[in-house]
Amino acid sequence: MAETRDWVEWRAADARAWIAVPRSSDDKYSRGVLGVRTGSDAFPGAAVLGVEAAIRTGLGMIRYLGPERPSALVLARRPEVVTVDGRVQAWLLGSGMSAIDRDPATTAALGDAISQGVPTVLDAGALDFAPLDHGPRVITPHYRELAGLLANGEHPVTAEQIASNPGEWAIRAAEQFDVTVLLKGTVTHIASPSGERLTVSNATAWLATAGTGDVLGGILGALVATHSEKAMTDAGALAALAATAAFVHGLAGERASAGGPLAALDVAEAVPAVIIELLAGSG
């Protein structure tokens, strides 16, 4: 059982410490390489949104490995993306997929990625891989997805129960699956097996729209890739990175909204300005 701790609100100064600023000696490999298996023929846009957000968060390279249709859309939007398999320092898996409808080849590819043991972000259609003990993992469910993940337990839980006490259920999932949990909601709760308990409360309600979760996954994937070594050795690093991703996502949503409706791609496009403000100390 992890040590009991109070919930701590993540602030701009906390997030700033987890933004990787490139050095003059860096190249595209030392800045972090993120492997991405997201999107599907049914939901190809998820791949575009996650890749766009990851690139705009800052890293050295993205290797996108996915179906033909989302691959074409990703390359049309971001021609710098590499679509050849190779070494990566982190994985982003599952956005825009359904575990129920996954074909065997996709399931095998996801399993192969996780088995590499590098830090991994599991979203949407890859959440069912959370129990596999292969390296540091962070899952990014909303209430309904977490209820589905916990449905096979001894005491199944409903989405309504999770929504009424999200912090407690995030802790339970972190301990049950030995993963860091980023539970999305009006207030995002991040819990780790080692006892971190973080909240992020800066999200505008306008972020409750299709595709913004894919953007969050891309931001988090980039942050994890740029801090891969830290995530491998520091038990609390994934929680800090998850909270930073949620904080950046919230600020980007606020900037994209300006008090009104937004689209998910608007949020991704707002990320660089948010990072500039954070690094300048004005975020």
3D structure, described in words:
By secondary structure, this protein is an alpha/beta fold. It has a single domain (8-280), classed as 3-Layer(aba) Sandwich (UDP-N-acetylmuramoyl-L-alanine:D-glutamate ligase). The chain contains eleven helices and nine strands. The protein has a nine-stranded mixed β-sheet, sandwiched between helices. The termini are far apart. The model has no long low-confidence stretch (mean pLDDT 95).
Order of adjacent strands in the largest pleated sheet? 1-9-8-7-6-5-4-2-3
Q: Would you tell me the overall average pLDDT?
A: 95
CATH topology: UDP-N-acetylmuramoyl-L-alanine:D-glutamate ligase
Query: What would you say the CATH architecture is?
Result: 3-Layer(aba) Sandwich
What Rg is obtained from the alpha carbons, in whole angstroms?
A: 17 Å
Helix/strand-derived category reads alpha/beta
Query: What sort of overall outline do the alpha carbons produce when their principal axes are compared?
Result: globular
CATH superfamily: Ribokinase
| Fraction of helical residues | 40-55%
User: How many E-type strands?
Assistant: 9
Biggest sheet overview: 9 strands, mixed
Content of β-strand:
5-15%
What gap, in angstroms, lies between the N and C termini?
36 Å
Give the helix tally. 11
Q: Helix and strand string, N-terminal first?
A: EHEHEHEHEEHHHEEEHHHH
Number of domains: 1
CATH level 1 name: Alpha Beta
